[in-house]
Amino acid sequence: MSVKTLRQAPGPDPVRADTARILRHALTPQDARAALNHARRCLGSYGSVSAPRFLADARMLASGLPLAVRELMDAARLDDRKHAVMITGNVVADGELGPTPAHWREADTEDSRVYGMLLALYATLLGDIVGWATQQAGRLIADVLPTPGDEDKILNSCSSRELVWHTEDAFSPYRAEYVGLSCLRSPDATPTTLSSVRPGLVPQWARDVLRQPRFEILPDNAHSGPDGPGPSAGSSTASPQAFDRLDRLRREPPAVALLDGAPDAPVLRIDRDFVRAREGDAEAAEALAWLVAHLDANLYDLPMRVGDVCFIDNRTSVHGRRPFRARYDGTDRWLKRVNAVCDLRRSRPARSCADDRVIG
């Protein structure tokens, strides 16, 4: 969806290092080994990240992670202006990982599950992990990798096109507060991209409009197949009702605001490819065009290297990914991904029961 600029947006300054609010911690080799060994023990005891017993015990199990990591994540919980949290230096045994799969359906491999478990334990320091019935068969740990045939699609499995910035699952009131990414392989250190609103540069007229429910955000393609919603979208376990709900949202999207929260720490909700002003609302279209230009101008790169774990704050930041050349030779970029929510009960209307972590 193209957005036409109607009123000139003030050009934000080029992003400097002090505007990229990334909280970082570099693991010592000893702590990195301890964290992975803890994840390995948890996997051996519980068998799976999705095991109900693991999900019930996860918060206590996370106390077995290195103290420095727990201190970092605790500070991150209270920082309402950060863009992301980065934990570097994690151990990834490339020789034991096996080739990068050609599709997410093949990516839940025995040798990669320990990294999903470690990612889940890290995520638990920030909230509760959830999945989507209409995404990757409801898996709580998803896989991000290039897929043949998806090179130019608006999907995270694309490669030759840029994955344009977005709030993860912006269409849904049940979207996660954090999106966690664990880099298992990235031969080109392909950057994740981040951007956010710089409060001091938002003119009052735009702020007033963006805080009103005068916009629509459609469900993104990660929740549907190329020809629309349906079981071929990637979940053989999702009920038809889940796809029916997505179809209704596409036909009758609710009116939403794009900005919320405190003036100096705004909460952002937007997806560049799937957002629009409500029909006939020229002022909303003008404010949207300003916001898109503002986020475009403030976009910066966050390279993801092997062993990096990054938790993006899905309230303060939008994220995407630069294009890269997919090789399809087993060496391609491969990330594990998890969603974490701060208030699990908020999504209860969309889950089958209190213990279910899959939003449908």
From TrEMBL:
Q: Which domain of life is it from?
A: Bacteria
Keyword entries, A-Z: Dioxygenase, Iron, Metal-binding, Oxidoreductase
Q: Which family is this sequence assigned to?
A: Belongs to the clavaminate synthase family.
- SUPFAM superfamilies according to UniProt: Clavaminate synthase-like
Q: Which residues form the TauD/TfdA-like domain?
A: 279-338
Any stretches that span the bilayer, and where are they?
Answer: none
Protein name in UniProt: TauD/TfdA family dioxygenase
Q: Where is this region: Disordered?
A: 218-240
Low complexity bias locations: 222-240
Q: What are the GO MF terms of this UniProt record?
A: dioxygenase activity
